[in-house]
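Readers outside the structure-tokenisation community will struggle with the description of the input data as it stands. I therefore recommend that a typical entry be quoted early in the introduction. An entry of this sort, consisting of the sequence and the corresponding backbone structure tokens, reads as follows:
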Amino acid sequence: MEKVAILANGGDVSGFNAVIRGIVKTAENHGVKCYGIIEGYNGLLENNYIELDSYSNASGILYKGGSIIGSSTNANVFNYKSRRKGQDEYVDLSDVCIENAKKDGFDCIFTLGGDGTQKSARDFYQKGLNVIGVPKTIDNDVACTDITFGYNTAVSVATEALDRLHSTGETHHRIMVLEVMGRYAGWIALESAIAGGGDVALIPEIPFDLEKVANKIKERMSKGKKFSLVVVAEGAVPKGGTLSVKNVRNNGKGVDNTKLGGIGEKVAAELQELTGLEARNTTLGYMQRGGTPTAYDRVLSTKYGSKAMELALEGKFGVLTVLKNGKLDCVPLEDVVGDNKEIGAVSGNTKESNLRRVTMDDDLVKTARNIGISLGD
């Protein structure tokens, strides 16, 4: 083990840089040189990378949001969008990436990302590239691990927003709706509702009935509570309804091109009609992704980075670093991908993907119900 490279892919989260730092410092302590691939899988394709050093460019990054090596949200190199004769076409350029990595002498590439990133990592491993994944996403929906880095910071930001909305709602006797991220999994909405004193949490896993939500709010009104806090995941859907899609992008095949948004506004408008209380929506958006990571995420990210480098030194490739029952471990990327078997066909977020969603027997669901949070069912 002489040279390793780090690749950050997908939407940015707080903790990216802490993972990078953890890998770099552990690598240096074992005499291994570390490099950063610029702009995710795009950088691997373009052979664009820099050397990382904990005494120079990888110094002082523990508390910084974003990624010092950038990231990409639209690079499925197995189905890469290109333009030819005025028309879009899709080509498999994965072999170019493998050739670049081998020519550069990288003994292992660390893939920092979520479901789609690790799907591509699994595909690369099947084609002979040594890879080790690190689970990243604020949605906390990567399979086989208890928690992803970046999630705790996102929940903390959402909780602070609820604290601030609480005072406004109470002062003006309003329903305050907070739309948070969570495309297919409701972890952020559920946990922030519990932490921030929310009265309602609407999540993708439970189709909601706004009549029942309105009844919850009316019950509070009858007991003297003239305001309510409602947390809505962006992927929440009404019973018999569909996802609220803001627009559809054209970033090529094999990536999720739907941009969600708008469910918070819809919920606020309907609840105002049903209850007679004024309702206001706040969409938190990218505020959840950026900024300084929490102490928890700094520690978790450092642990993940250090563990990933340990696995590389042990020659354990084709795996994802995970936290299970409070202990660091690893699982095969094949288990993470689940039934999404075909190489290069899709990058993730499909019905075949093994996404980690909220289950009805989860302690968070039980806790929410026990303390009277309505889940809209």
Notes: The mean pLDDT is 93.
